[in-house]
Amino acid sequence: MSPVEVGTYAIFALIALIWIGMPIGVGMLVVSFIGVTLIRNDAVAVNMMASVANDSLEEYLYAVVPLFVLMGLLVTVSNVGRDTFDVFQRMLGRISAGLGMATVFANAVFASITGISIASATVFSRIAVPEMTRHGYTRKFATGVVAGSSVLGMLIPPSLLMIVYAVLAEQSVGAMFLAGIGPGLLLSFVFCAAIAWMARRNRSFVFETDDTEDYESIGAWAVMQKFIPILALMIVVLGGLYGGFLNPTEAGAAGAAGALIIALLRRSLDRRSFWRLLVETGQITVSVLFLILAATFFSRMLALSGVPRELAEFFLGNSIGPWGFLVLYLLLIIALGCLIDSISIMLIMLPIALPVADAAGFDLIWFGVLTVVAVEMGLLTPPFGLSVYTIKSAMDDPDLKVGEIFRGTFPFVLAMAASLVILILFPSISTWITRI
């Protein structure tokens, strides 16, 4: 077999292994080792695996992963999500569908200090959904808003997916974080516009009964007390990062320290729960770094096979062209989102797509933002829909059906698709702040 044939068969073999249930990291290592062995020999495969293990994980940059993960977990246990929702409920609760908009903006702020969509879905399913249903909103709309706005956790910095993309694409993590601000705000406002439109044109979808419940009265001073810790953490992390005072790893360390202080001051952390958070941080970090190692090996195997070069010539040398490639790539990403998780999609697709995108002359920062938005749509689409199943699990309500949540998320999937089109047509939304 020619190297190109080996690389092509390796891609299909990896998809088949994932489909039958093999962990993606293990599947990538197995397929890559066999692929390099067939292209060269087993000695080269062993040496390349050892080189990848050393080169892909020795960088100082990778310390950013456990630090931001720890910060997100500490923020989750310290009830910052509840305080964020209370602040926006005070501001927006009395306007039409205001609790839905409050959930979106609370999720946007919460995303800026956690970076994990599943954390947002878990927290706000327990906070926002009961409050919205108490005020007459339908359960499908309430759960749909929480699931839809939870995707902001992977777009608004800091974001775990942004870190993974930056590593695989060899781009600056700080630049990726900056590029996520404009699209994150755009998506937030598009979600709110969709909520306002539904409240006006399709009230039966949004409201089950008229809102006759009283809203909890929160004074201005109480609002400030709730918002000050959130604002302080955002200033430390994002201000330090964007102001040039801290690099991403230092910003993660400062954020983790700030989140620890907040948790201790609120007495929401004891020795046992802190140890549990440290163990969970370690498990998530090891999983992510192992996947990065496996993806790096897979990428080098593909480069050795010449598959990316052949794909670049195919897409860019005929009538499909760069924009045809981009459309097909995003459609494939969205389709894969119905079947497998976000990080797995990126680890499979990026080693193949990045060389083509680079040859097409695309800005790889902008390309990364489009990738993250398309990947995050998979969190809301059946049958996988990880955010949907997270909400179902967190709600622990036997009467709440998964299909009901999926119906609630559908308008937000359409809103994300519209936002994706806007980001394609106006790349500066993603890139302007990185050029300042």
UniProtKB/TrEMBL annotation:
Source domain of life: Bacteria
Cellular compartments annotated: Cell inner membrane
Molecular function GO labels: transmembrane transporter activity
Family: Belongs to the TRAP transporter large permease family.
GO CC terms: plasma membrane
Stated name of the protein: TRAP transporter large permease protein
TRAP C4-dicarboxylate transport system permease DctM subunit domain mapped to chain residues: 12-429
Transmembrane segments: 6-39, 60-81, 101-129, 141-168, 174-197, 227-245, 251-269, 281-303, 323-352, 364-385, 405-426
Assembly description: The complex comprises the extracytoplasmic solute receptor protein and the two transmembrane proteins.
Keyword Lipid biosynthesis belongs to the record: no
Membrane topology: Multi-pass membrane protein
UniProt source species: Palleronia abyssalis
Function: Part of the tripartite ATP-independent periplasmic (TRAP) transport system.
Pfam families documented for this protein: DctM
UniProt keyword terms in alphabetical order: Cell inner membrane, Cell membrane, Membrane, Transmembrane, Transmembrane helix, Transport
Presence of the UniProt keyword Ribosomal protein in the record: no
